[in-house]
Amino acid sequence: MSFETILTGRDGAVGIITLNRPEALNALNRQITTEIGQAVDGFERDPDITAIVLTGSDRAFAAGADIKEIQDKTFMDVFDEQFITATWERIAQCRKPTIAAVSGHAIGGGFELAMMCDIIIAAECARFALPETKIGVIPGAGGTQRLTRVAGKALAMDMILTGRRLTAEEARAAGLVSRVVPDGEYLTTAVTVARDMAQSSRPILMIAKEAVNKAYETHLAEGIHLERRLLYSTFAVEDRREGMTAFAEKRKPQFRNRSEQTGRGHPFPGGWHFMSAGPQKNTCSPVCARPRISAWTSCVPS
Hints:
It is a single chain. By secondary structure, this protein is of the alpha/beta class. It has helices at 30-45, 67-70, 75-80, 90-93, 109-115, 143-151, 153-162, 168-173, 186-197, 202-217, 220-234, 238-249, and strands at 6-11, 14-19, 51-55, 60-62, 98-102, 105-107, 119-123, 127-129, 166-167, 179-181, 283-285, 288-291. Helix 6 (143-151) crosses helix 7 (153-162) and helix 10 packs antiparallel against helix 11.
């Protein structure tokens, strides 16, 4: 698939999406957010891709929403077209690990887009801000929620109500950025981190990501309950056995990204289902007709 506002590439098992609207400092309009989503779809379907890096240019990751596109819209316009909801959030829904490699401006929607990724790696020159109140609106792509959850109410209020810009080091100190690297090294570092991830089992990475993300959205007891069930589910993955065996034998594991076969016609011993806890009165899965006791219990044995 060809794109007009982004570039795509790969480095081994790493998919790379580069925002490419230099004339507008990568401002986010409907076309570029749609194309980001399409690129993520492609990398998510690709069995040879384990992690995705999203980046911009040295000057700007993304300088926010394209004001020229939305300045004349009415309430009904944005409501009917589901502005932001329709095209912006695909990267946040990606099950594979995602890394934002940021240099220069990550402003408004650009900062919100970076926060949708699992990890942010920033060049020293990176600057982060949510200045929407200065132009008569508020952050609307998750900024008021993700920033507050990560950095706390005090800093979120400071940034959103005053438009304060954070340096890369300030963002790292606040827990928003994972690593700060010298200017010009942000993309290389992000790809290196993603390649390190690709040495692990892809389904295990996805399960780990799900567990960490749940901590965002629930209380401790429920989060630990989910974590424990997801841990148990890794024992249905062939790579878990291979990883532990390789460790014991002092060799490098050879992961195959697949479940263990039980010989009973079911790909997972116990048939775990990753969903919120609670009674379920349906069958185990479309390919397993055995009844399921609940969302977190195994299939009724044959």
